[in-house]
């Protein structure tokens, strides 16, 4: 039944086009000669008519014009139809110019050829545009409650760029969502009073309250994928003051396929207000993708917050195989299931292993032959590692060395080590182990064909065990919210954008460079807590905030990631190369072996003493004043 309907639709489309071709051909002659042509041209008209119409129909078939759905005709489709109209016209022009004059029947007048082309082009486009217009008008029909369909919410789109254009287009095509886009808001004065998809740009962001009141707007959607967290915060405050519920389109990485999915338009969250660091990735997407496409890629720590997001984004780049490595069975099960069921990516090889086991690590490299390795496996919680010093060293130092050495030994193309801002002037055991990891990577990279690189960034919003989930849990329990110190500040970024940085850095690393991201200004933890309270629907005074003091190993302020005097820029916006890790000790390798041996024996005091002596700037202070 569906096939019969489809076939009938295509037959109707062909018949309509044949009518347009016929009308265009006859109209061209009658207009050229201002009525019925003279006998010679009339004979020419009648003899060539079936050949020209047949040739145009064949051209449309060869250019796949009948695979285009009329109701969704786009600019790309218009270009395709234009191309399909050209071959017959070019043949007619060729005959007119190059055929001898004693073949008058094949030499159409130039005026007829020109008019015929224009009538065919605008006629075939016209009938398709009429079909689309009818579809759009039917979708824009105003419904009311008497028909059990909700009234449309009057909505403003903040941002009249590409994302705004895609958003309004999809909202028009989805009347079931009950959005009525009343207008755009944009701070570019050149866009004011212009129209996109028939929707006018009404004013700038400062005019939102006035426009909302005048037009009775209920909701605003921020359609600015390159907006900073500061800009989003400003717009949210304006919309809140105007009594508007505010939503936002997906972030930059989610927009790379050039399509806004309405299902992804969501409420504002803490990532948008604090962690939406914009990285210019889209212009480099094809180059970045080519590095990872059709490669066997191993991700250690694949079940963690960073590792799992790495797997999601790498899966979209169509690698030959993803080798998932983690020592936690439950985390591995979750990411393996997600990639298979949600992302529909099946070229997976989940491996449960502790990277401290050198024989097993070597066996995995022998059997799986990875071409690219992302080393995200690490113990990351600062206070916990102060009480589990040996485990921190075994996992973060020995496990890293095992993985890096096997990558070098087996000729891995690229190795990307995930580091942290806590490795800068480390005051914690965790920071010290990551600093040693950087030194290990840079040491191996010196004499290796493998392209090694390190990626260093600040705190990641929403990662497991981080401050945001803790605050959210405390808010759900109605407080109190516990903060270590009223002046504590941290750099923040979202998980997806942190992973973008890692993926980009992996394409340009050579000899163990440390890549860092310009994360802007640090955020006061108390401000983050207050933002979360407001986003949860409470007033700041509704919940108590308690200051409990710094924990072991914590800093009051993190070190700046970008040393403006010494850092070097890269081809990627906001990504810089930090100066090489300095280690002046000639006996570093001896000290490293001592630290690993002490960790195997569980001699924590001996580890702390060796960390102070190894030349990485670690003093063993548990907190800063």
Task: Summarize the structure in short.
This protein is an alpha/beta fold.
Account of the protein in words:
The structure is a single chain. With 625 residues, this protein is an alpha/beta fold. The protein has three domains: 138 residues, no CATH class; 122 residues, Rossmann fold; 263 residues, Rossmann fold (3-Layer(aba) Sandwich), CATH 3.40.50. Helices cover 47% and strands 14% of the residues. The protein contains 20 helices and 22 strands. It has a nine-stranded mixed β-sheet, sandwiched between helices. A seven-stranded mixed β-sheet has the order 3-4-2-1-5-6-7, sandwiched between helices. Helix 14 runs parallel beside helix 15. The radius of gyration is 32 Å and the shape is elongated. The chain starts with a helix and ends in a 12-residue tail after the last helix. About 3% of the residues have low confidence.
Topology summary:
Elements: H1 2-32, H2 39-62, H3 75-98, H4 110-139, E1 153-158, H5 162-173, E2 179-185, E3 195-196, E4 199-203, H6 208-215, E5 219-222, H7 229-241, E6 245-248, E7 266-267, H8 270-275, H9 285-292, E8 296-300, H10 305-315, E9 321-326, H11 329-341, E10 348-352, H12 358-368, E11 372-375, H13 382-387, H14 389-409, E12 414-418, H15 429-445, E13 451-456, E14 459-461, H16 467-476, E15 481-483, E16 489-490, E17 492-494, H17 495-508, E18 511-517, E19 523-524, H18 525-535, E20 545-547, E21 568-569, E22 575-578, H19 588-601, H20 604-613
Parallel strand pairs: 1-2, 1-5, 2-4, 5-6, 8-9, 8-11, 9-10, 11-12, 12-13, 13-18, 14-17, 15-20
Antiparallel strand pairs: 3-4, 6-7, 16-19, 18-22, 21-22
Helix pairs in contact: 1-2, 1-4, 2-3, 3-4, 10-17, 12-14, 14-15, 14-19, 16-18, 19-20
């Amino acid at each position: 039944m569906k096939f019969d309907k489809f076939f009938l639709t295509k037959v109707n489309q062909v018949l309509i086009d044949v009518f347009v071709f016929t009308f265009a051909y006859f109209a061209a002659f009658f207009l050229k000669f201002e009525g019925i042509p003279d006998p010679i041209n009339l004979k020419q008209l009648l003899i060539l008519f079936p050949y020209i119409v047949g040739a145009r129909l064949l051209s449309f078939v060869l250019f796949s014009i009948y695979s285009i759905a009329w109701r969704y005709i786009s600019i790309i489709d218009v270009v395709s139809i234009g191309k399909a109209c050209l071959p017959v016209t070019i043949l007619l022009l060729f005959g007119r110019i190059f055929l001898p004059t004693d073949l008058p029947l094949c030499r159409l007048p130039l005026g007829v050829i020109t008019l015929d082309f224009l009538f065919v082009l605008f006629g075939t486009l016209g009938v398709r545009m009429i079909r689309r217009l009818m579809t759009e008008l039917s979708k824009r029909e105003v419904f009311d409650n008497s028909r059990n369909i909700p009234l449309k919410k009057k909505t403003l789109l903040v941002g009249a760029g590409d994302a705004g254009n895609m958003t309004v287009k999809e909202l028009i095509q989805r009347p079931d969502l009950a959005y009525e886009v009343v207008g755009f808001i944009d701070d570019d004065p050149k866009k004011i009073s212009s129209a996109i998809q028939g929707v006018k740009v009404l004013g700038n962001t400062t005019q939102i309250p006035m426009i909302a009141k005048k037009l009775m707007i209920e909701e605003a959607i921020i359609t600015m994928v390159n907006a900073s967290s500061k800009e989003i915060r400003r717009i949210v405050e304006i919309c809140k003051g105007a009594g508007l519920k505010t939503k936002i389109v997906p972030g930059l990485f989610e927009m790379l396929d050039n399509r806004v999915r309405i299902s992804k338009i969501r409420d504002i969250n803490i990532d948008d207000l604090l962690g939406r660091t914009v990285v210019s990735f889209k212009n480099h997407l094809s180059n970045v993708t080519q590095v990872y496409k059709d490669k066997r890629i191993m991700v250690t720590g694949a079940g963690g917050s960073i590792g799992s997001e790495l797997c999601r984004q790498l899966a979209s780049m169509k690698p030959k195989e993803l080798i998932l490595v983690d020592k936690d069975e439950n985390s591995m099960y979750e990411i393996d299931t997600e990639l298979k069921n949600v992302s529909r990516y099946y070229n997976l090889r989940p491996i449960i292993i502790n990277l401290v086991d050198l024989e097993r690590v070597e066996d995995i490299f022998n059997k799986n032959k990875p071409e690219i390795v992302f080393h995200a496996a690490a113990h990351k919680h600062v206070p916990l590692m102060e009480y589990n010093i040996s485990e921190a060293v075994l996992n973060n130092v020995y496990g890293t060395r095992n993985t890096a050495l096997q990558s070098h030994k087996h000729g891995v193309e690229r190795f990307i080590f995930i580091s942290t801002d806590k490795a800068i002037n480390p005051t914690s055991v965790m920071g010290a182990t990551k600093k040693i990891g950087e030194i290990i990577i840079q040491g191996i990279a010196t004499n290796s064909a493998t392209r090694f690189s390190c990626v260093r960034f600040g705190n990641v919003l929403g990662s497991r065990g981080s401050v945001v989930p803790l605050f959210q849990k405390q808010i759900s329990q109605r407080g109190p919210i516990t903060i270590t110190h009223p002046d504590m500040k941290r750099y923040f970024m979202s998980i997806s954008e942190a992973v973008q940085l890692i993926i980009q850095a992996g394409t340009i690393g050579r000899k163990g460079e440390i890549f860092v991201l310009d994360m802007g200004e640090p955020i006061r933890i108390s401000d983050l807590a207050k933002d979360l309270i407001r986003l949860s629907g409470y007033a700041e005074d509704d919940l108590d905030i308690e200051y409990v003091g710094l924990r072991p190993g914590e800093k009051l302020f993190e070190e700046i990631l970008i040393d403006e005097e010494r850092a070097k820029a890269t081809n990627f916006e906001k990504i810089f190369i930090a100066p090489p890790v300095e280690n002046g000790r000639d006996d570093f390798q001896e000290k490293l072996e001592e630290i690993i041996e002490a960790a195997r024996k569980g001699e924590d005091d001996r580890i702390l003493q060796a960390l102070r002596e190894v030349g990485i700037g670690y003093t063993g202070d548990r907190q800063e004043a």
